[in-house]
Amino acid sequence: MNETPQDQQPQTTPTPPQPAAYDTQGRPLYYAPPASGQQEQQAPPQYVHISRAPEPAEIPLSEDTKRRHEESVKAFPNLNLSPAEFVINMVQRHPIGLFAPIGLGILVIALIIALLANLQPILDSIATPGMIDITTIGPPLFFGGLLVILLIGVLCYIHVWVYQNNKFFLTNESVIQEIQVSLFARHEQTVSLQNIEDASFRQQGILQTMFNYGSIRLSTEGDETTYRFNYVADPKRQIAVLNDAVEAFKNGRPVLND
């Protein structure tokens, strides 16, 4: 009998290496793995360090810009102006907006004075003549009438103050609108000249045409925000100045005074 050795193992044919790619002439290219126990060397990481000055460099300003900025700060201390910013034009509300409230206040005061001056005939007309003595009720009524007149005068003054503190400023960089809502309510809106997309004015009605006042409207890019300023004197000229400033700013030209 033929015996087979126990340690005999079946022989396997080694698999030839497969090409990793081919060159332009069709010849195979093979990938050679690193030797056992060795690792592929990788390039060390490179670090780029960027240094920045602790304070940004200041843009040099001309003497004319500095002078105009100082003059604007002195004339309008409530405005928040940048170091290179100065006021070109200030727009105030037309005084016609005060005619109605002030006229009403004057009318009420005149009516109260007329009532106090003719107090005795009025009392006699509503009661039996001689029944009501003017010397008894006269002083309290006069005192009350004077208090009402004083109150109306104070309210008219407050209304004028609030009305006149609504202002519109055009600078060489932006448009600033000061809005005085009441005696203790005030806010400010600032729009860069770069963001102004459209500026227009509107006059409507006989009074606005005769007295040459109206409203101006600004619309900004992106968020489509609209800003309005009413009772503007000569709105056509104000819009012309504003449009010239916006065009000069966007084209990189200096924005000059009107």
Structural features, described:
With 258 residues, the chain is of the alpha+beta class. It has six helices and nine strands. It has helices spanning 63-75, 99-117, 119-126, 134-164, 206-211, 235-250, and strands at residues 21-22, 28-29, 87-92, 167-171, 174-182, 185-192, 196-202, 213-220, 226-233. Strands 3-4-5-6 form a four-stranded antiparallel sheet. It has a three-stranded antiparallel sheet with strand order 7-8-9. Helix 2 (99-117) runs antiparallel to helix 4 (134-164). The N and C termini lie far apart (125 Å).
Write the layout of secondary structure elements.
Blueprint: E1 21-22, E2 28-29, H1 63-75, E3 87-92, H2 99-117, H3 119-126, H4 134-164, E4 167-171, E5 174-182, E6 185-192, E7 196-202, H5 206-211, E8 213-220, E9 226-233, H6 235-250
Antiparallel strand pairs: 1-2, 3-4, 4-5, 5-6, 7-8, 8-9
Query: How large, in whole angstroms, is the Cα Rg?
Result: 43 Å
Uncertain runs are none
What level of helicity do the residues show? 25-40%
Distance between the termini: 125 Å
Summarize the structure.
This protein is an alpha+beta fold. The protein is built from six helices and nine strands. α2 (99-117) packs antiparallel against α4 (134-164).
